[in-house]
Design goal:
The complex is a heterodimer of chains A (80) and B (194).
Chain A (H helix, E strand, L loop, with lengths): L7 E5 L6 H11 L6 E6 L4 H11 L3 E9 L2 E8 L2
Parallel strand pairs in A: 1-2
Antiparallel strand pairs in A: 2-4, 3-4
Chain B lengths: L17 H23 L4 E6 L4 H16 L3 E6 L4 H4 L21 H4 L4 H15 L5 H10 L3 E5 H6 L12 E4 L1 H10 L2 E4 L1
Parallel strand pairs in B: 1-2, 1-5, 2-3, 3-4
Helix pairs in contact in B: 2-6
Classes of the chains: A alpha+beta (80), B alpha/beta (194).
Chain lengths: 80, 194
């Protein structure tokens, strides 16, 4: 797994759809352009959901995703 | 195409002058600018009509509304008939689930119709929701309101069911009818009836 310089970490472990995406959006709103949010989730659906959300939503970009030991980690950058 | 009719589009042989073409280009540019100005600042919109008031059917409109808001959509959810129960602060805590008429439930209709069975199937689902850490109805409503989702309670149904405007969660709009819903749907990129 690549190391990423993250500004903030959002822990949504134990929470299910739609909360990982919804809380990621709420957290990213609090960042400034260029900053990266790390999201820790145990929801396997979050891999597809956060990738799809980042792809379709203006102002955010998926930097990386990783999975292992039941943990799904996402890195999302605010771009505007 | 024959080569001896080069001005087929202009049967009288007269081509538009340079000035006429320039005027046409200018007019088209103006119309394009108007269209762009109309659409530029508009967030995409989603309109949901929520008509069901059972525990299972309360989830889809709320999950889709909050998720669309996360995608940057302006979302309105128009609650009518039993869908009103989802916004009713007290009743939303006691939404029921019935196995009768639901072939996906592991209970035969003849058993499901016995007294007390709806309460039992509801309790089973509530336990599954809690065990699975699925968000509660109240959490989803609070989160959606935080994200700017507009929940509308159909005024006709409020009157029909003899509810009071204060019975609903804070932030819910009342005093709206079918015309408002139609207007929202007409302007929306996604329209759903749940």
């Amino acid at each position: 797994m690549t190391e990423h310089e993250t500004t903030e970490t959002l822990d949504v472990k134990g929470q299910n759809c739609p909360m990982p995406v919804v809380k990621t959006k709420q957290s990213i709103d609090g960042l400034t352009s260029g900053e990266v949010l790390e999201v820790l989730s145990t929801d396997s659906g979050s891999m597809s959901d956060i990738a799809g959300w980042a792809d379709s939503t203006p102002g955010v970009e998926l930097v990386d995703q990783a999975e292992g030991d039941g943990l799904y980690t996402h890195y999302v950058r605010k771009t505007e | 195409m024959s080569t001896d009719t080069p001005n087929a589009a202009e049967p009288d042989g007269e081509e538009p002058s340079r000035a006429e073409l320039a005027a046409q280009v200018e007019e088209l540019e103006q119309r394009l600018a108007d269209v762009e100005a109309d659409t530029a600042d508009d967030d995409p919109k989603m309109s949901i009509i929520a008509t069901k008031g059972t525990l299972d059917m309360a989830y889809p409109p709320l999950i889709l509304a909050s998720t669309a808001a996360a995608f940057g959509y302006e979302v309105t959810v128009f609650h009518t008939f039993w869908g009103l129960e989802i916004l009713h602060e007290e009743n939303s805590k006691n939404l029921q689930l019935s196995s009768v008429g639901n072939p996906s439930m592991p209970v035969p209709n003849v058993i499901g119709a016995l007294p007390g069975m709806d309460r039992m199937t509801t309790r089973m689902m509530e336990k599954q929701i809690a065990d699975n850490d699925t968000a509660t109805i109240e959490e989803l409503i609070d989160t959606s309101l935080d994200m700017g989702v507009e929940f509308q309670a159909c005024q006709m149904t409020i009157d029909l069911m003899d509810y009071d405007e204060d019975d609903f969660f804070e932030g819910v709009s009342t005093g709206v009818g079918a015309a408002t819903a139609i207007q929202d749907m007409a302007e929306a990129d996604i329209q759903l009836l749940v």
